[in-house]
Amino acid sequence: MRVTSGIKNRTRQAIVDAAINLLAGNPACSLGDIAAAAEVGRTTLHRYFAERADLLAAVSVEGGERLARAARLAELDRGTGAEALLRLCREYFDLGALLSLVFTEPGDECWTAPDGAPPLAAVVKRGHADGSIDPVLPADWVIGLLWSQLYAAWEYLRDHPDASRHHVLDLLIRTMGNAVRGPGAI
Amino acid sequence: MRVTSGIKNRTRQAIVDAAINLLAGNPACSLGDIAAAAEVGRTTLHRYFAERADLLAAVSVEGGERLARAARLAELDRGTGAEALLRLCREYFDLGALLSLVFTEPGDECWTAPDGAPPLAAVVKRGHADGSIDPVLPADWVIGLLWSQLYAAWEYLRDHPDASRHHVLDLLIRTMGNAVRGPGAI
DNA sequence: CTGTAGTGGAACACAGGTGTTCCATCGCGG
DNA sequence: CCGCGATGGAACACCTGTGTTCCACTACAG
């Protein structure tokens, strides 16, 4: 049994969640702020994560798991490369604040690695082969495009509270699809 | 004569330049680091900018001027909306580290305002009217797309030192153009 | 040579975040 | 009721960055 107490897990999760949300807005935010957002005392936070680095590591792990889950839901093996990429786009879009964190913290190696069996680059290369992705665009470029547009979409949603989540997702899929598809496509 | 000494301006400019480059990489970097990068003592830095906020303000002004200069070079009045947008893309691309700063510091109002006579949104709307930009895409969305792809291009250039500046610019223009142009274009 | 502008370094007090310790409180099962 | 697990708060020392003061050094014009 890894479950120590049940309530401990709940508190721990609340801290990690608060950390993700606050760090997304300000990567240099204080532990006191995170503790307050999680509605726990700073002492309790330190009881779960002795040092700041420990909390950041936990955030990294949690983020990696969410990314992996999204990638699994996207069924990257199905359909053309472009279709798989856009499905992944949809799933990632739901990750919310985590997008900022992943995008602005490229230092952590944890993000890109755990995408599961088919690394993102392989999906893009499949798109190159089946003609759904412009072969002129390097895989790394397409991946960078994916993240930057996801971040742009998240920021747009933040700045336009009246815009519906569904509408923004449509915009994202449309521009991402157009960017990746070659100029000669239908 | 506003020119106090000539050498003072040179030192001041070195500090602001160093600040732009360092703040782009780490918005929370210390004044000591900036002084070191500018090859001046921390005392000298404080002699030019009494408080951190004063330096940040100077960086903001300098950034605004560079953005305005780039916008002027792009001749936003000429050609279709999409053509003007892509010309601006080219000019902005040369701003280098400043891109990270503008992109990650949306709090400063200084960036977007001083674009000169034709605000960016007007260019996009011209594109809507002349058919060169998909009318389904809101102007704010297109602007967000522009910045995010500029940032992605800059990051790509950083991570791929072997990639030529010219090649990355080509990728940027291509994906940006495709994203903005409607799906039914030639 | 002398005064001055520009600079650098050492030292200081201050503020804020961090990590730790100790003690008090609350809820709950034995 | 008692003990225990989980928590919160106060206090502390520590570190880093900040803003300031003071003094020494260099280059250069008069």
Task: Name some characteristics of this structure.
homodimer, 186 residues, mainly alpha, 9 helices, DNA-binding
Detail the topology: elements first, then pairings.
2 copies of one chain form a homodimer.
Chain A: H1 7-25, H2 31-37, H3 42-48, H4 52-73, H5 81-93, H6 97-104, H7 120-130, H8 139-159, H9 165-180
Chain A binds a DNA duplex (30 and 30 nucleotides) through helix 1 and helix 3.
Report on the structure:
- 2 copies of one chain form a homodimer.
- By secondary structure, chain A is mainly alpha-helical.
- In chain A, 67% of the residues lie in helices and 0% in strands.
- Chain A contains 9 helices and no strands.
- Chain A has helices spanning 7-25, 31-37, 42-48, 52-73, 81-93, 97-104, 120-130, 139-159, 165-180.
- In chain A, helix 1 (7-25) crosses helix 4 (52-73).
- The first copy, chain A, starts with 6 loop residues before the first helix and ends in a 6-residue tail after the last helix.
- The model of chain A has no long low-confidence stretch (mean pLDDT 91).
- Chains A and B meet through helix 8 and helix 9 of A and helix 8 and helix 9 of B.
- The first copy, chain A, binds a DNA duplex (30 and 30 nucleotides) through helix 1 and helix 3.
